[in-house]
Design goal:
Blueprint (H helix, E strand, L loop, with lengths): L1 H14 L1 H4 L2 H22 L8 E3 L8 E3 L5 E4 L2 E4 L3 H26 L15 E4 L3 E4 L9 H12 L33 H30 L2 H8 L2 H26 L7 H21 L3 H24 L10 H7 L4 H23 L11 H12 L3 H10 L1 H12 L8 H26 L4 H23 L9 H16 L5 H24 L1
Helix pairs in contact: 1-8, 3-6, 6-8, 6-9, 6-10, 8-9, 9-10, 9-12, 10-11, 10-15, 13-16, 14-16, 14-17, 15-16, 16-17, 16-18, 16-19, 17-18, 18-19
Length: about 525
């Protein structure tokens, strides 16, 4: 099988010889440009706000430039504003600039004696107990209250350091000290984490896009139909994606090196590469045209991108560990951390590969993609054990989609109600689809509902407990009963059609979630 896969990979490279010299170089250059831009932005900072405000005088602040029609006019004894929103914003920045200049003057003249309170920021990890209460670890903080206490703390904590302090350009802050004035405390920047995430993942997207185009071409020109008769589907598909997987690994390794990370962190990126290749393979198998495949790939990639990037931005929070990019940023190589952040990608890749390999009967059908997914589910779920396993393995797909829906909660008022409804629909769709498939294959509907509910409950709570070690196990039967009742409602109303049954079970699920959230927040 390995020899056959290598032969297929060799044929794939020959088939792509037209773009290897031109498009291949273009992809590499784009990837290098993306990583280089990321490194440059992280090292120098983003400067898109330079010169956005105007004044009548030349100031030392890069945000201001001289103009004949300034936003702020500095005159002897005051400042004149134009009255626009931009003018008001410019005045705020001017006031901050003058304060920094004044603080610098104070520091140069009086040193730390001019600042009666100075603090040092210490990050403390927290752990969650019973889902709501945060418990600090054993880290201690020096008590600071008043000038005398501060001076003692400073002398105890950084004896001899203060003499070495030299102010930076118009910052008013000790540039070499661990201590800051309270008004200089700022939340950690999120932009650098986004840039890091893009630097790791975007080069892979370039390669996967080429693979997607190649797979769509082979599908639409019916080459797979010929290849699958001569070789097994797994040999053809794995051999075809082999060169793209190798190229993605090389590019991501280069990105890690450029961004100052050890190549060992490739273990976090490799499952993402496999998942993206499996995703594009599956969308090619169920699509009727290249346009349809592109649409499906883009939509699903948006979900995956949000799942990868947003947790990396909020890496200080517990839920940030769902993304492997977060583990790379934090330098976390623990086995449990690896399992928690990559299991969903491994499992989704395996499921998508399995469905792609067994998609011969629906590959060239003119039915819409959703009907093809239903048919593939029917072919897969034939008894109660496969139903349980299928529902359990559907949790990563549900989790990725629900994570995207949670991002909608900040977009408009009352979005929480929409999110509750969408989450209920997503969960009941996956459960209902697999129950429906089992029933079509002769399984008892009510038994299938119970089996699916148990499988979904166990998978859902396994994900939850990976991040929130909840101790209140007494209340666990409640969501299990709710899942079971929703599934039984689906089976009872299935005689009226799949869509109506889904609507009834989703409505019950949404009401249950809403009541639980209301009871927790009141």
């Amino acid at each position: 099988m390995i020899i056959t896969m290598l032969e297929i990979a060799k044929l794939e490279l020959r088939a792509r010889r037209r773009w290897r010299a031109r498009d291949g170089i273009f992809v590499v250059l784009l990837s290098i440009l993306a990583v280089t831009t990321t490194v440059y932005s992280l090292s120098l900072g983003v400067r898109i706000d330079r010169g956005i405000y105007t004044s009548n005088l030349k100031l030392g602040d890069p945000l201001f430039r001289v103009s004949k029609d300034p936003d702020v006019t500095v005159v002897r004894g005051g400042v004149i504003l134009k009255g626009t929103e931009k003018s008001l914003a410019a005045f705020d920045e001017l006031r901050n600039y003058l304060k920094r200049v004044y603080d610098e003057w104070l520091w140069q003249r009086y040193g730390y004696k001019a600042f009666p309170v100075m603090v040092r920021l210490v990050r403390v990890k927290t752990k969650v107990s019973e889902g709501v209460r945060f418990v600090k670890n054993s880290t201690t903080f020096p008590k600071v209250s008043g000038k005398g206490a501060v001076e003692k703390s400073v002398k105890r904590e950084s004896e001899g350091k203060m003499a070495e302090i030299a102010p930076q350009n118009v910052t008013g802050a000790p540039s070499k000290s661990d201590f800051l004035t309270p008004d200089q405390l700022r939340p950690p920047s999120l932009l650098d984490k986004i840039l890091y995430a893009f630097g790791f993942v975007i080069p892979i997207y370039f390669v996967v896009q080429i693979y997607s185009s190649s797979t769509a071409e082979d599908k639409l020109k019916r080459r797979f139909e010929v290849l699958f008769t001569a070789l097994s589907p797994e040999e053809v598909l794995f051999g075809k994606m082999l060169p793209y997987a190798v190229a993605s690994v090389l590019l991501s390794t280069i990105a890690l090196a450029i961004l100052g990370k050890s190549p060992i962190y490739e273990v976090y990126i490799f499952p993402v590469i496999l998942f993206l290749l499996a995703l594009n393979t599956f969308t090619a198998m169920i699509s009727r045209s290249y346009r349809e495949m592109t649409f499906l790939t883009i939509v699903i990639s948006i979900f995956v991108t949000v799942y990868l990037f947003i947790p990396a931005v909020f890496s200080e929070f517990t839920f940030g560990g769902v993304s492997p990019i977060t583990r790379i940023l934090n330098g976390d190589l623990k086995l449990w951390s690896y399992v928690v952040s990559t299991f969903q990608f491994w499992s989704m890749a395996v499921v998508l590969f399995y469905l792609s390999i067994n998609s011969n009967e629906v590959m060239y059908s003119q039915r819409d993609p959703l009907e093809k997914i239903v048919e593939l589910a029917r072919q897969t779920v034939r008894d109660y054990p496969t139903l349980f396993l299928a529902v359990f393995l559907s949790i990563p797909f549900v989790f990725v989609i629900e994570f995207f829906t949670l991002s909608l909660i900040f977009m408009f008022e009352y979005a929480v109600y929409v999110v509750i409804l969408l989450i209920a629909i997503v969960e009941e769709f996956f459960k209902g689809l697999l129950i429906y498939s089992a029933v079509r294959n002769g399984c008892n509907g009510y038994v299938s509902a119970i089996v699916a509910s148990i499988g979904f409950f166990l998978g859902e709570k396994a994900v939850l407990f990976a991040f929130l070690p909840v101790k209140g196990l007494t209340y666990l039967p409640v969501p299990l009963i709710a899942h079971t009742l929703a599934s039984l409602l689906f089976v009872l109303t299935l005689r009226f059609g799949f869509k109506r049954a889904l609507a009834v079970s989703s409505a019950f699920h949404a009401v249950y979630d809403g009541v639980i959230i209301w009871s927790l927040l009141r």
